[in-house]
Amino acid sequence: MKASKGLGKVSELALRQRRQGLVKLLPPAGEVLRGSLVERFVTCGNPSCKCARGERHGPMWYLTVTLGPGRTTGGIISADLVDQVRRWIENYQRLKADLERISEINRELLRREQNALRARKRKGA
Ligand SMILES: [Zn+2]
After folding, report:
1. Looking at the DSSP assignment, which residues form a beta bridge with residue 66?
2. If you measure from the C-alpha of residue 40 to the centroid of ligand 1, how many angstroms do you get, rounded to a whole number?
3. Is 59 helix (H, G, I), strand (E, B) or coil?
4. Which residue blocks in 1-125 are alpha helix, DSSP H?
5. Which of helix, strand or coil describes residue 72?
6. pLDDT value of residue 1
7. How many angstroms separate the alpha carbon of residue 65 from the centre of ligand 1?
8. Which residues lie near ion ligand 1 (Cβ < 5 Å)?
9. Which residues pair with 74 in a beta bridge?
């Protein structure tokens, strides 16, 4: 296992503390949402409406979620829920990024444990 970039010179104690700090500040896992919030201004189709003259209705908010290649889902989000949805999306992205950082730290700790074990075996202990 190769050393993660940048962590190779950090002390083990510092790594454990960094991991503890990340774990403590993880966003609530129950309040996450994968997707993105899109703002749209729309026309209603009525030719005599102001939107037909360029004054579109909105903003209307949509959640779009990619399910796979070429497959998306989602729907309209009412204005009252936009803040919550925005927060949940943010939580999702932070949680994902934080888990990645924790995983990187664990990879480095594991590498050191592995080295220590190997050194101990070499000594015949
Ligand atoms: Zn209209």
Report:
1. 72
2. 13
3. strand
4. 12-24, 79-122
5. strand
6. 54
7. 27
8. 44, 49, 51
9. 64
Spacing, Cα 60 to ligand 1 middle (Å): 13
| Residue appearing with tokens 């050191």 | 112
Whole-model pTM: value is 0.81
Mean pLDDT computed over 24-40:
97
CA distance 37 to 114: 44
Place of tokens 């996450």: 32
Over 80: is that where the pLDDT of 46 sits?
A: yes
Ligand 1 centroid from CA 86, angstroms: 27
Residue-wise pLDDT tens digits, 85-103:
999 999 999 999 999 999 9
For residue 43, the CA-to-ligand 1 centroid distance in Å is 5
